[in-house]
Structures are given as structure tokens and as C-alpha cells.
Amino acid sequence: xxxxxxxxxxxxxxxxxxxKRHPELRQQYLKTLQLLAANPFHxxxxxxxxxxxxxxxxxxxxxxxxxxxxxxxxxxxEIIPINVGDHDAVY
Length: 91
Known about the structure:
alpha+beta, YaeB-like fold
């Protein structure tokens, strides 16, 4: 069951800055997005719910150091990326 990634203008700007700062992660980032759309529950993404001020959001891993925070709307099969960066930047 495929999901639709819905990119906001704010997220697109954040992602562009992230790729500009970390061009070596471009392929991993794109692969993460592809896998997220195909199956957000794939074990390699390490999907988990967030708490505290980010309650209601989830996080997936690009690699051990970098994450994407997302909002998952299961009823509409939509995933809305919120932020991308290292642990301190997204949390």
C-alpha cells in the first residue's frame, strides 16, 4: 500500500538547505523518502512516535545521525515531512 508524500513549502526549503550542507547524504535522503512512500513501517526507517512538544509527530532515520520528522495521516494515506536534520536540529 503506497503512501503519498505531501511536501510543504517550508519543508522543501529545509530539505534544500539540508542537502546543500550535506551533499554526501543526497542518495540516502532520497532513498529514505522512496522507502517512506512505499512502506513507512519498514524496519530500516526505525519509525517511532515522538513525545513532549513534538507529540503527534513521528521520526524516521536517514542514517544513525540524521532524521526526518513526519506527520502521518493514516486515513488519507498521506505523509507530511516536517523537518530534516541531525538529532538536535529536528528534536
